[in-house]
Design a protein that fits this description.
Elements: E1 2-3, E2 9-10, H1 16-42, E3 46-47, E4 53-54, E5 66-71, E6 77-82, H2 87-96, E7 100-108, E8 120-129, H3 135-151, E9 156-158, E10 161-163, E11 170-173, H4 174-182, E12 190-191, E13 194-195, H5 197-206, H6 217-229, E14 239-242, E15 264-269, E16 272-279, H7 284-302, H8 310-318, E17 322-328, H9 329-337
Length: 353
């Protein structure tokens, strides 16, 4: 008998009684997926299937991958990883000439297990060439409404927060969120695209956020977001947290309005992060620099680093301007059905270890 994350005994997912408790959620999952698939098909998107095995799983500092290896016919071993996102593969398809694509991709992230996390989950990602980044906000709003319409559930709740998925999205910049919820002038701590660690540390301490001596600017930024910002997002109505500082751009391009920020937003509902969207960066040299910086930081914190996919960076030079969004499909289904964890809406959850 497996145990929950809190150690309580629990029957396996294939136990008939437990399966019956979950079955309504799972059938709703299927209906939501089919409805979203039809929505994309009706708008001229092509569904693609991206390979899970990749040379690099992704190069974000705090994401951890599952490693494996390919053994060639001659016996040579080649390290590979299960991807943490289909993003690299999707962008290669844009470079190849596709213009509107979407995928329901199984993705894999190690060291993650909670009510909102599972080591293997489904990511809905979509990309469109020559499409304004702001269009993705409208897409997210429509997808929330589609999911709610399938279940007939319009009062979404998680923990102690609730929100209506059909309410207009509240659009809030990251800098405004820092000012409103932590009384911090975030952009004043960024100069020449570099975060001033001392300034942000002092502001965080004044706001009552504890920091460590070895915390970087990004570490402090993340701690403030988790402790002061996220709990206030997506209450009553979904929130789009946009215009991330350029230091947290990831794979997003700089904003033409304010170079201290990037064309990046995250979607929240009931305090739960649902989606992460970019106006996609196509400058391969800048992207390589960001990857190296992130892998240096991963090496410092965790003692490991992942290879950089040079094939991806070569494709990036050929990729046209585009926008893309990644949405956690299991979390969407969880909120739309009223489930209390993502494992209730995953057909084959892993056993607890």
């Amino acid at each position: 008998m497996e145990r929950t994350a809190r150690g309580a005994p629990q029957s396996p997912w294939w136990d008939s009684a437990r399966h019956q408790d979950r079955r309504a959620f799972l059938l709703a999952r299927n209906r939501i997926k089919q409805t979203i698939r039809n929505w994309f098909n009706d708008r001229g998107y092509i569904e693609v299937e991206t390979a899970c095995l990749q040379v690099s799983p992704g190069n974000e500092t705090h994401l951890h991958a599952f490693a494996t290896q390919l053994t060639a016919p001659g016996g040579e071993a080649h390290p590979l990883y299960l991807h943490t996102s289909p993003e690299f593969a999707c962008k290669k398809l844009l470079a190849a000439g596709e213009t509107k694509i979407f995928t329901f991709a199984p993705v894999f992230r190690n060291r993650e297990r909670s009510l909102l996390h599972h080591p293997e989950f489904t990511m809905l990602e979509w990309y469109e060439v020559a499409s304004p980044y702001e269009n993705l906000i409208d897409h997210c709003s429509e997808i929330l409404q589609l999911a709610a319409g399938i279940t007939g559930h319009y009062d979404w709740q998680y923990a102690n927060a609730s929100a209506s998925p059909i309410a207009p999205l509240d659009r809030l910049s990251v800098s405004d969120a820092f000012s409103r919820f932590a009384d911090i002038d975030l952009l004043a701590t960024i100069d020449q695209n570099i975060g001033n660690r001392t300034q942000l540390a002092e502001a965080a301490q004044r706001a009552g956020v504890r920091i460590a001596d070895d915390d970087t600017w990004s570490d402090i930024f993340s701690r403030i977001v988790v402790e002061r910002i996220e709990p206030n997002l997506g209450r009553e109505q979904p929130t789009v947290l946009h215009s991330y500082p350029i230091t947290e751009a990831a794979l997003a391009r700089p904003s033409p309005i304010d170079p201290r920020t990037a064309e990046r937003f995250e979607l929240y509902c009931c305090g739960v992060e649902l989606a992460n969207a970019f106006g996609e960066l196509t400058d391969a040299d800048t992207q390589r620099e960001r990857f190296i910086e992130d892998m240096d930081e991963k090496q410092r914190i965790y003692g490991e680093r992942y290879p950089i996919d040079d094939d991806f960076l070569a494709a990036l030079k050929e990729m046209p301007a585009a926008s893309g969004c990644a949405l956690g499909f299991d979390r969407l289904v969880m909120l739309a059905t009223g489930a209390q964890s993502v494992e209730q809406v995953i057909w084959n959850p892993l056993p607890q270890f």
